[in-house]
Amino acid sequence: MRLYLSMLLLCFTSILWAVEPKKEYVDHPANSTVKFEALEITTSDNYKLKSWICFPTKDKDLKQVLVLAYGDAGNMSYYVRQALEVAKYGYTVVMFDYRGYGESQAFEMIETQLYYDEFVTDLKAVVEYSQHRFQQPVGVWALSMGTIAGTLLYSDIKYDFMIAEGFVSSPQDIISKLKQYLDKDYTLPSSASQYELALSKLTLPVLYFAGDRDGLTSPNDSYRAKFLNTKSEVVLYKGAHLQGFQALSDKTHGERYIKAIDNFLVNKDLPITITK
């Protein structure tokens, strides 16, 4: 038991779980042969968000779009390698930085707040842009904190599916765990009180990736959400928080991870959701 608690504490220590934006990019789609486009997307409250869109080749294009909503730390450049691999398999991947992250417009934040309601506004702008531009099924590829934004967003506007890793079934539980294991107080925005209701309304197809050694967002979080949604499935991998892409690699990086997405979506009759 003591060894388990020590490993759990190490997991929490290495994952700070508070807003930790980075301005400098550590990678760029230009460092590959994948076709991409750089642009700015404007939110409803007039914030400018930096975005990169990675395109599949025409012969592999699956006519499906993934909007990447990453977690609380770094910026979109930390996920370039994953996005490129997904694009090579036929998906259009729309990456973006939340306000205050990367080269998106500056936004003042407190590091001990778990997330900001404004991140949902940012995700909404990118999803709506993607729906209007591509007129193809659009899903949110949500990681950790990004699963909160994706869940809250679906109560506001509809999109077609979600790929969720490190799913948060209760922001309040995350706060309690951080207090218990790090003895540190974190705060939540006003939307947290509506999260339980938003989770009950998450009726779109959702594929959950859950790590068997994830002490923060455990497999139980994903299975709880699956219980509420008959259109969902869970892929359990051997690893910790957000290690699914690495754990499910084979001959190529993330091969089994991407194939799990393929298998999940292949039998789904996905509509094209367009917002006004």
TrEMBL record:
UniProt xrefs under Gene3D superfamilies: alpha/beta hydrolase
Superkingdom classification of source: Bacteria
Domain Serine aminopeptidase S33 per the UniProt entry, residue ranges: 62-158
Name recorded for this polypeptide: Peptidase
